[in-house]
Structures are given as C-alpha cells and as structure tokens.
Amino acid sequence: MLEVANMPPVNQIGFTTRWKSIMxxxxxxxxxxxxxxxxxxxxxxxxxRSVVQTVLPKGAxxxxxxxxxxxxxxxxxxxxxxxxxxxxxxxxxxxxLELANAELSNAERKGxxxxxxxxxxxxxxxxxxxxxxxxxxx
Length: 138
Fold this sequence. Notes:
By secondary structure, this protein is α+β, with helices and mostly antiparallel strands. The chain has a domain of 83 residues: GMP Synthetase, Chain A, domain 3 (2-Layer Sandwich), CATH 3.30.300.90. It contains four helices and five strands, in the order E-E-H-E-E-H-H-E-H.
C-alpha cells in the first residue's frame, strides 16, 4: 500500500504485458459519480394560462388547449374565446404573442410551435363538432 502525505491511502494495482508494465492507482476512498439522464421540462401550461388571462378583457371566458405536433415534440397552443370576435385572427394572435414573448423564457418558447386564437364558431367550423360551453376560469 502506497501512502502520500495529506492524501487518502492508495492501493497500487498493476499487470505486466509483453512489452510494458502498467500500473494503476486505486483510491480507498473514491468519490462515486453517477450520471442520470436529464428529465424533460414540463410544458408551462399554467404560465400560458396566466398570460392569456392577463391579455383578455377582464371576465372574458376562454378555453386553452395544448395539442402535440409532429415537429420535434413541439406544441400548438389553441385559445378558444368569444372575446375579440370582431378582430381578425392575426390581431388576436399578436396580442397574445406580445405578452407571451415577454413572460416565457427562451426554453419555454422553443417548445411552442404556434399560437392559435379562435372564437367558438370558428372552432366549430374547423372541427365540424359542436363546441362545448366555454367556462370562465377567473
């Protein structure tokens, strides 16, 4: 056993090959390191919900849907609300995008493919299904 001042005891392990003798040092008190796979961050649905509540007029009803897309695991955020039904879809999306860009971090924004803001009538036309009653979430 080999000991060095101010160092834990070290065992010497070695073997001889045909051409060289190779020596390894093994510490008696070695720190064990384990690597684990990074867990994927959860999608910030609550944060997006609070952004939408902030942007919409006070007391306006809305329903938030997060839909998986097939593009690199990104999501489509769909907001269904009767508010702003007189505005074109591009203006509705812009209002939400402006605050979402300020509130969400870069990593959170990378998980969103696009925002969609529809009225219940537009959703009905899009899906050909009757829309459910929109409930206030305030």
